[in-house]
Amino acid sequence: MKKASGPLAKRAISRRSLLKGGAAVAASTAVTGFPMVWAQALKDVTINHTGMSYSTIADIAKQASKDLGFKVEMTVVDHPGLTNRMINDPKSIDVADMEIWQNKLVVPQGATQAVEIAKIKNWGDLTPLFTQGKFAGKDVSTQGDSPFEFMYRDAKDAKAFTKAPTAWASFCPGVYNADTLGIRPDLVGREITSWGDLLAPEFKGKAAIQNIPTIGIMDAIMAMEAAGIVKYGDKGNPTKEELDKTISELIKLKKAGHFRALWNTFDESVNLMAAGEVVIQSMWSPAVTAVQSQGKKCTYQPLKEGYRGWGNGLGLMAHLDGLKLDAAYEYLNWYNSGWVGGFIAKQGYYSSNPKTAMANLSENERGFFYEGKAATADISSPTGQKTNSAGDKRDGGSYEERFSKVGVWNNLMDEAEFLFAKWNEFSAA
Predict the structure, then answer these.
(1) Comparing 21-25, 43-47, 50-54, 230-234, which segment has the lowest mean pLDDT?
(2) Least enclosed by CB within 10 Å: which of 113, 119, 148, 231?
(3) How many whole angstroms separate alpha carbon 109 and alpha carbon 113?
(4) Are 122 and 353 in contact (CB under 8 A)?
């Protein structure tokens, strides 16, 4: 791996040591005069991290600001809002916390600059799921928009992706997960083994699906194929005909009262499940955790067809330069250095640097969240609420088990405009 060059190389002493004012800093400042000037100037910098609610969390900004010595602010938007701001108001963002597929929209527009890999201190430790397109020594599924397909560019200002690794990354890998259906095991009345169970007649009026077209359609596709209703050539990039059939079937189900709700927000999904109004639905891992923290049984159910994978990357906006760009790189390096990894593990998410994430968990938490082991003591959410008891195992098993079973990735399909139009018909039906 290359050594860092430019301003980062000059800062051989860590920023944290600089701000603590240790003897080594005093010696360095006496020789060059640079580090302390840089540190003092940096205190006036603010980095705006903008993204979706599941990863753009005030607690992360607070800890980053404390550790780095400059201000990090979080701005929460939805998927369309983030894409719109990156293209139409790019200077309102510094670090864009975007899903992988959003790179397909913003990179050709020149909205982000590529990340210089030499400046990412732990790049070699980041998951090969992103950096090599492999996991546990095997190629990952390429149905949908898998991270590796959009990982690299050949220059800082390149507007296209390369098929092989280069010195420039489209983004710095962030959080990711393998999603499935959430269920109330105490209320479903039978074993749930397939995505097709989302559409089973006995769950009429007690099922829900997320009302986010690009993600909700993937849950619907997994369910439709599993139930034998629609067959897809590529679930990650369906044809117009396949989409038309899928939405038509969804509309029939909705009109027949199958769906209790089409939820739009995290909180809606939590409330539906916690109240028992819904017993099987599209769900996100932190929402399952939130239901469990209310003392309700909720399972993120492993299914025989596999998981729907997704990933986020931290993109550097094109306007960043000078001191603010230096600060953004410091933030990227901090983000995967461990604290965030430990925090998001308790939501059920994974860090792009599993090594540092696991180092920031207790032995009990590490065993539960990453290793597929039974908890030896209670497990708590990031805010300290109990989610699991001693003896419980994480749904789906270990990190390796879960990500070895990803069947399709979140994506922006070729027929996206057609999808949005048809989804609006479904939502309004």
Answers:
(1) 21-25
(2) 231
(3) 11
(4) yes
Tokens coding 358: 């696991």
Phi, psi of 105 (to 5 degrees): -90, -40
Predicted confidence at residue 79, as pLDDT, reads: 87
Closest CA to 122 of 362, 276, 346, 336: 336
Please provide residue 18's backbone torsions phi and psi, each rounded to the nearest 5 degrees: -55, -50
CA distance 291 to 280: 13
DSSP state of 229: S
Can you give the pLDDT at residue 37?
65
Contact 282, 291 (CB under 8 A): no
pTM: 0.84
Q: For 344-375, what is each residue's pLDDT tens digit? A: 999 999 999 999 999 999 999 999 999 999 99
pLDDT of 27 > 80? The answer is no
Q: What are the backbone angles phi and psi of residue 172, rounded to the nearest 5°?
A: -95, 125
> CA 324, CA 261: separation in Å to the nearest integer?
44
Give the residues across from 210 on adjacent strands.
Answer: 263
- Give the span between the Cα atoms of 318 and 90, in whole angstroms: 8
Domain 179-306+405-428: CATH superfamily is Periplasmic binding protein-like II (3.40.190.10)
- CATH number, domain 7-176+310-359, options 3.40.640.10, 2.40.10.220, 3.40.190.10, 2.60.40.1930: 3.40.190.10
Return phi, psi of residue 90, to 5°.
-60, -30
261-292 pLDDT per residue, tens = 999 988 999 999 999 999 999 999 889 989 99
Tokens of 102: 């959003």
